[in-house]
What we know:
The complex is a heterodimer of chains A (115) and B (799).
Chain A: E1 10-15, E2 24-29, E3 32-39, E4 42-47, E5 61-63, E6 66-68, E7 75-77, E8 93-94, E9 96-99, E10 102-106, H1 108-112
Antiparallel strand pairs in A: 1-10, 2-3, 3-4, 4-8, 5-6, 6-7, 9-10
Chain B: E1 5-10, H1 14-26, E2 31-37, H2 49-54, H3 67-72, E3 76-79, E4 83-87, E5 92-95, E6 100-102, E7 105-108, E8 112-114, E9 127-129, H4 133-141, E10 146-150, H5 154-165, E11 169-173, H6 186-198, E12 202-204, E13 209-213, E14 220-223, E15 228-230, E16 233-236, E17 240-242, H7 245-249, E18 258-260, E19 271-273, E20 278-280, H8 288-302, E21 317-322, E22 325-331, E23 340-347, E24 352-359, E25 362-369, H9 375-384, H10 389-396, E26 413-415, E27 420-421, H11 422-431, H12 437-444, H13 454-465, E28 475-477, E29 482-483, H14 484-494, H15 499-506, H16 516-526, H17 540-544, E30 547-548, E31 554-556, H18 567-579, E32 584-587, E33 593-598, H19 603-610, E34 622-627, H20 630-633, H21 641-652, E35 661-666, E36 680-685, E37 688-693, E38 696-697, E39 701-702, E40 705-710, H22 713-730, H23 737-744, H24 746-753, H25 760-773, H26 778-784
Parallel strand pairs in B: 1-2, 1-7, 2-3, 7-19, 9-16, 10-11, 10-16, 11-12, 18-20, 34-35, 35-36
Antiparallel strand pairs in B: 4-5, 5-6, 8-17, 13-14, 14-15, 21-22, 22-25, 23-24, 24-25, 26-27, 28-29, 30-31, 31-33, 32-33, 36-37, 37-40, 38-39
Helix pairs in contact in B: 1-8, 11-13, 14-16, 19-26, 22-25
The structure holds siroheme, flavin-adenine dinucleotide, iron/sulfur cluster and FE2/S2 (inorganic) cluster.
Flavin-adenine dinucleotide is lined by residues 10-16, 36-39, 46-47, 49-50, 82-83, 109-112, 130-131, 154-155, 158, 243, 246, 275-276, 286-289, 291, 318, 320, 417, 450 of chain B.
Amino acid sequence: MSSWLKVGNWVKVCEAEDIPLFEGRRTQIKGLYVGVFRTEDGFYAIGDVCPHMGGPLSDGIITGTEVSCPLHNRRVVLKTGEMKDDLLCRVPAFPVEVRDGMVYVDVSVLEEIPA
Amino acid sequence: MSERLKVAVAGNGIAGAAFVDELLKENPEEVSITLYGAEKVGTYNRVRLSEYMAGAVGLEELGMRPKEWYEECGIDLRLGVRVLEVNTEKQRVSGSDGKSVAYDKLVFATGSESFVPPIPGRHKEGVFVFRTVEDVERMLEATPERAVVVGGGLLGLEAAWGLVARGAKVTVVDLAGHLMSQQLDKTAGIMLRREIEKMEVGVRLGAFTEEITGGGKVRGVRLRDGEELAADTVVICAGIRPNVELAQACGINTNRGIIVDDHLQTSACNVYAVGECAEHEGVVYGLVAPALEQVRVAARCVLGDKEVASYRGSVASATLKVMGVDVTSAGNVYGEEEDSEAIVSSDPLNGVYRKVVIRNGKVVGAVLLGDVSGAPQLTTAVRRATPAEEVVELTLGSATKAFETLPLSDDAQICDCNGVSKEQIVVAITKKDANSISAVGAATKAGTGCGSCKPLIKQILEEALDTPVEEEKNHLCKCMRLSSEDIRGILRERKIRSVSALGEACGAGKACPDCKVGLAYVVSEVNANRHEEERHARHINDRVHANIQKDGTFSVVPRIHGGVTNPDQLRRIADVAEKYGARMVKITGGQRLDILGLKKKDLPRAWEDLGMPSGFAYTKAVRTVKTCVGTDFCRYGVGDSTGLGIRMEKAFENLYTPAKVKMGCSGCPRNCAEATVKDIGVVAVEGGWKVYVAGAAGMSVRAADELATVENPEEVMKVTSAFLQYYRENAEYKERTYDFVPRVGLEKIRSVILDEESGEPERLRRRLREAKEASFDPWEVERQQNKTKNQFAGVIGGE
Ligand code: SRM
Ligand SMILES: Cc1cc2nc3c(=O)[nH]c(=O)nc-3n(C[C@H](O)[C@H](O)[C@H](O)COP(=O)(O)OP(=O)(O)OC[C@H]3O[C@@H](n4cnc5c(N)ncnc54)[C@H](O)[C@@H]3O)c2cc1C
Ligand code: SF4
Ligand code: FES
């Protein structure tokens, strides 16, 4: 059973085709920059602003399921949003689904983040 | 001269081949050798089989010898021929070629084969062992995607490493409670596991492989606890079984191995055994170093030196790299006996563990993990049963590094793979003029196994020669331990044209992002820009051809050849800056203008409006040629520096380089273009031009080296082109000329790029032209056609 059926706050962000393999693109949901990434392992979505100095993670280099920030090469794990070199920092990670060629991101975790 | 001694050798593995070498070294005129090898290929270094599997090295690099070598040495080599029968009374052997040969001395070097436990399903398609080149080739043909390796010993981990390099997902299963239980104690094994799991290799310990499942073909492995591991490939690395059948069949005493005495002689007259098939005092050694110790003794005995040569057994010791982790193991590593104690230093956070086992006050074993400094000293201490006090500092003091200067005794074993002592290396250096790491390897074999002793060889070389020795190759892809040279070799040999295809072939760039952009450069250089461009292997700067700023906007630096501009260009630059809301326009240190703070989505239109070529200010490429006003205007000018600078910039623009290349061209020795602190600098002098290279004025300051003085601009172009291409082909990624030239040596570079008679300078220039022909101005090209979908998009979709 697809996790699509799970409850959540799913937002349609773009066509799958909009993001080439091994690249990321920035989208904006509820005023928040979200980076959507396409890896060999499928799509991932994380907060797109690097905790270090605000670099655009969607412009980074992807290997496996990690992205390295284009500004100072900090690495972020796409599955969890954790920073590889600094376990105390992280960006939010969002569930992603592709359905009928469209990419959907579940942003319900945002509701848990205090404003 | 009397008749030659007829020696027959059964087995052309590491021991058999080394034995032949040893005989030839002593007195090639005295022996006539028949060498049987059941494998179809010639001798190779089995130890590096996993590198072959990983695609990191070819067969040549495994030490294969050409057929002619055997002919020249007068060896009767019978490849693909198995010895089937031995008559020890008549002293004859007969092989699968149907021929029979007489011998005076016979040596068994039949090694061992993989032991395959009777696991149900072991005959299914997709189950392999890991011992020979053929095994590896068959395994690779099956293109493993998910593999289970049965056995977590040295061999199993090597196999896992090779499979990971081929892009397979791997799980290692072992019955023991920890990895490499032969070489490591439990703590070290646990730490090694953690390191290995970082490479995303699964590990199951205390796990009994109950069945290999699937129909005709492997589908997975079922463990006793019921877990099913899906797999298309199973590699069994459960140990070795010495090849003793042949010896047994001719009545020679065997046990687990062929039983030998201290002269390596078997129970039959004139028959010897060495290597992994031999058993000495109840021990069969499964490592190279003991085999080579045996070979040295056996060769002397075969040649009739029995009195002096005797073998007293080996201390099993090895310094290895296991999946990128340094490991040393020597002697008794457990120390579980009641009267044994241990000195231990452990830093689990950094994956470092060092332990020395002591009995009766003497060192009897050592395990080092993660930090193997002092390994030869400690292994020697085990071998000599040194009093424990002498090694306390060495074991615990690793943090202080103080012991790095601790002298190595002459008999300290440096190369564990080949059993080479410091003394042998020093002899090679002083008596045989071996003055580099590879020369030492050629003379002694040291460093030609796993290679982990190379830093020590370097240290010994430096001590003996009293000069610094060239650094050993550094790895472009650290995860797969591949140097740029290795990568270039793989690209050429397999005609690879993209970073992805390279990754498929050898794993480079698949595990971490650090080397991807470097690989992209090497791929483009080797293919003279006729490669397949893959944007995901490029930094964002190279995907959008502009330099990313701290706020995520970009800077645009159009090319202004030689720093000479005109009102029309200036007007367009001003217009673009205004139209797209640049935050600043700045005169750069490179004699051109920088428009800073443009948005990604505006870049193509800004280029369009500019109508100027890209200045490549965002990448590792030919940047600028700074010039001065030269003869056209300056009262001191003796050469047309502006004209020549522009000519150079046009000749070299659009070329990518290992690191950025900046040039300068001055019209007289007052040198207003600062040419002597540039990667390539040219200064006009009375009657000619001086060409400089490797200057720097950035992070470090270095006055350029004078490469040549030439007569005219034509010659300047020739020399600088040859130099640029030589640098493009030979520098490490990110290595500026100011590091490259001193590393390679100015004299060496001169001898290559100035020797027109050799034809090499012209070949370099031809390759540069070839690359240049396929180069282009990315702004021009992107304006017409984006390479990937919404490449310049700022924000897409969303809500
Ligand atoms: C724009 C400019 C400064 C200026 O306003 O004048 C500049 C700007 C940068 N320099 Fe530079 N360098 C500039 C001339 C120089 C010069 C002078 C020159 O070229 O004559 C040098 C010393 C010469 C040299 O390279 O050796 C110079 C030595 C460096 C270095 C140190 C290189 C080294 O190995 O020593 C770096 C860092 C690096 O490359 O790793 C660097 C790196 C940078 C980067 C690209 C840092 C980066 O990666 O973002 C800066 C881009 C700023 C931006 O956000 O756009 N820049 N930089 C100059 C552009 C020149 C051009 O027209 O292309
Ligand atoms: C993948 C791998 C990695 C290893 N890594 C290390 C390491 O890092 N360090 C280390 O010290 N050791 C290592 N080893 C172990 C090491 O390779 C062996 O100890 C060594 O190869 C033994 O040499 P040998 O010549 O005795 O046997 P082998 O190398 O097995 O050679 C025996 C040869 O004899 C041939 N032969 C057998 N019977 C006959 C016959 N009847 N007639 C003719 N030919 C015959 C066989 O085909 C074979 O080619 C590794 C082994 C493997 C497989
Ligand atoms: S000197 Fe430093 S801060 Fe200034 S442009 Fe160069 S790299 Fe940037
Ligand atoms: S801003 Fe991302 S690493 Fe510095």
